[in-house]
DNA sequence: CCCGTCTCCAACCGGACCGTTGGAAACGGG
DNA sequence: CCCGTTTCCAACGGTCCGGTTGGAGACGGG
């Protein structure tokens, strides 16, 4: 048994992400998180406080990862379709995030880390507005709406998988199906925003 | 005390819709549903069985209402934008439905009333495919994808209200804001599907 | 007026879960 | 070798919840 408190925290958090994403805050039990991590429950309380605090910690952590992940590959808005495609890819590769965000939205409580997230999104709106003024993007839609709807296109597949299954009848994990969905999202994004 | 079993069922179901939409299946308690309806808890079990059955009953009921509501105003696909607009309106007027569907999707269990719902959606896909063949709709997108993305445009606002608030900074219940959002949805739908 | 149905009330049981506690090992720095 | 920290283990108190039960009124059809 290594003597590594950071590793312990990491394993607990990893287990918490999985459990919260799967069952939501109400359905998750602290005991199961600990069990999944192979670490005693009492450590969980010692490090992260009660369940609510743990959920917020987990969510803001994952949002930081998202911000880091998309900030890397963001060379302006030369191709709005590829932006939507990358958002689609991120969600496909990290299905927990969309679920955590949905649980948060449904739970109706206060929004975790609201200030930073608001700033982050408003930055995107400003960037889109600038691109519209320059003619790089079509300006027929309000910039905030455009950002919102682009996210919708990319995230909707992971938000209502039952509906996706009923409409396409396909296995969402099959590579071809994923590629088809991505291509549709890219095309739709261009239709929404590409200059005419 | 009226002698009306149908009214009793109705009141229980009404309370169940509200509670389930607000707190989700896991967070809802049978006692609270009964209390909200002003009816004894034991009636609830007598009429609807256990919690899982009650949730499925409630959800399929609401989906039937939706089907009835949109089937009325569906005179072909002459204006795809108005179709999206009406879907937006329905969700705006019945915010519980989107939440119930999300809870269902997150809960990951079996899809309630799957057969009927699948048929219903496949009908829509066929109608869109026909419209594409006739040139009434642009055929650059797969018909199933198009239906799926049109629903996304309309429902996304009610699916992630926290995100909507951070992006627009507006009160979603204000009439002007609702009108602005609806107009954006209609415009976006036309961009996705209107023939060029 | 009577009988079957509907309803209420109150209480109960078994189980789950949150968060805590007491104690005892394992470990590493000095 | 010793002391403080980290970890484990087991158990507990209190609460809540799902689902059931027993008994007793209210109502309407015959």
TrEMBL record, chains A, B:
Any one biological process term the GO annotation gives: regulation of DNA-templated transcription
Question: Which part of the chain engages DNA, per the record?
Answer: 29-48
Q: Does the keyword Heme apply?
A: no
Keyword set, alphabetical order: DNA-binding
For this chain, one GO molecular function annotation is: DNA binding
The name of this protein is: Transcriptional regulator, TetR family
The segment(s) forming the HTH tetR-type domain are 6-66
Ranges in coiled-coil conformation: none
**Which species is the source of this protein?**
Actinacidiphila alni
């Amino acid at each position: 048994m290594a003597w590594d408190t950071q590793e312990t925290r990491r394993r607990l958090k990893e287990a918490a992400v999985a459990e919260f994403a799967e069952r939501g805050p109400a359905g998750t039990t602290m005991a199961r998180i600990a069990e999944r991590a192979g670490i005693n429950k009492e450590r969980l309380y010692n490090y992260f406080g009660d369940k609510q605090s743990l959920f917020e910690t987990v969510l803001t952590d994952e949002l930081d990862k998202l911000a880091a992940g998309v900030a890397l590959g963001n060379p302006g808005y030369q191709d709005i379709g590829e932006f939507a495609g990358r958002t689609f890819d991120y969600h496909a590769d990290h299905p927990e995030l969309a679920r955590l965000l949905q649980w948060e939205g449904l739970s109706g409580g206060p929004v975790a880390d609201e200030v930073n997230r608001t700033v982050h999104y408003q930055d995107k709106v400003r960037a889109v507005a600038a691109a519209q003024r320059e003619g790089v993007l079509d300006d027929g839609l309000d910039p905030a709406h455009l950002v919102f709807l682009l996210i919708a296109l990319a995230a909707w597949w992971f938000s209502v998988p039952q509906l996706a299954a009923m409409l396409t009848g396909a296995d969402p994990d099959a590579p071809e199906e994923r590629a088809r969905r991505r291509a549709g999202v890219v095309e739709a994004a261009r239709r929404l925003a590409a200059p005419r």
